[in-house]
Amino acid sequence: MALTALAKAAGRFAALPAVVASVRAALAQHTHAVDAELQARAAEFDALLRRELDPVRAAVVERMPPPEYAEVPYDEYVLNPAAMRMKALTLFRPPELIAADPAADPAGDSAARAEASRQSVVSDLLNLMDEAPTSAPISAPTSPPQPAVAYPVFHQHGLRLTLTPSKRAAHVVDLRADFTNTGDSAVSGLAFQVAVPKSQKIQIHPPSGQHISAGSSVSQLLRVSNPTQAQLRLRMKIAFTADAQTHEHMLDFSGFPSTVV
Q1: Mind giving me the DSSP string for 212-235?
Q2: Residue 38: which H helix or E strand, with range?
Q3: What pLDDT, in 10s, does the model give residues 9-42?
Q4: How far is CA 171 from CA 115, 159, 220, 229, in A?
Q5: Which of 193, 185, 188 is nearest to 241 (CA)?
Q6: In what order do the strands lie in the sheet with 201-204?
Q7: Would you tell me how many other CB atoms lie within 10 Å of the CB of residue 168?
């Protein structure tokens, strides 16, 4: 604020070179300030006070006129909630009053016209508040999203694997692999590998766990990019230990519908 005041003072006393030079010297002390905002303002005002900007300086630093407010009686904008909410629309003077010539219009007629214009403004505001609001158009009901479908892929040795697809983007599909222990003993050392054709790319996220107790499950996210929108084909290798025995299985799966691409 102090820098702004200095710049305005230099503009007001532009005819006194000594004052302008003193202001520029004061601004120069802040052009290397630690505060970035203070430094920027000082540099801008210092540039504004250069001689080549003399034609525009007066317009930049001139005093801003105060806003003009229409006089609204107390009982119309305080006691009347409608007029109070619409008060912002009354902050103007009617054009006929601005263009009126006081010398050619008697004082009594000017006052009557001002009162009539003010009453017209207030009346228009109240009419706006009294109008019944228009009802919003009712949009047609949209069909609910289809529930996710889990496709069974593998179920042996007490371990069941399902894949649940979901569309992520135009050519990207997320596949949630759910491993459920349906046996009586725990499953441990779970390892899951997946490959896709060369026209597709796959991103395999780590599983939520590698140890599955009886009756529980873990999940793993697969993200497949399929720019050619070809049929999804997966080649999977699953390895785990159950009942003190290690199991490995190779699986091929392409049972997704054509909508999952």
Answers
A1: B-TT-EEEEEEEEE-TT-PPP-EE
A2: helix 36-48
A3: 666 666 677 777 777 777 677 777 677 777 777 7
A4: 68, 31, 20, 7
A5: 188
A6: 151-156, 159-169, 172-181, 217-225, 201-204
A7: 12
Q: How many other C-beta atoms lie within 10 A of the C-beta of residue 260?
A: 18
Please give the sequence-ordered ranges of beta strands (E in DSSP) within the chain, or none if there are none: 151-156, 159-169, 172-181, 187-195, 201-204, 217-225, 234-242, 245-253
pLDDT digits (tens, 9 = 90+) for 190-218: 999 999 999 999 999 999 999 999 999 99
Percent composition of the chain: helix, strand, coil (DSSP 3-state, to 5): 35, 25, 40
User: Tell me: the pLDDT tens digits for 124-174?
Assistant: 545 555 554 555 556 656 656 667 899 999 999 999 999 999 988 888 999
For residue 11, the SS3 value is helix
**Is the separation of the CB atoms in 233 and 254 below 8 Å?**
yes
Residue found under tokens 């054009």: 95
Name the DSSP letter for residue 197. Answer: -
Q: Tokens 């430094």 appear where? A: 39
Q: State the pTM of this model.
A: 0.46
Does 252 score more than 90 pLDDT? yes
Residue 178: partners with Cβ closer than 8 Å, 6 or more residues away: 150, 161, 162, 163, 164, 217, 218, 219
Is residue 53's pLDDT more than 80?
A: no
Query: Cα–Cα distances in Å, from 30 out to 5, 26, 35, 41?
Result: 14, 7, 9, 9
Amino acid identity at 7: A
Helices then strands, each counted (H, E), the chain: 8, 8
Instruction: From residue 238, give the alpha-carbon distance in Å to each of 73, 89, 152.
Output: 83, 72, 14
* Amino acid making up residue 17: P
Joined tokens for residue 170? 């135009």
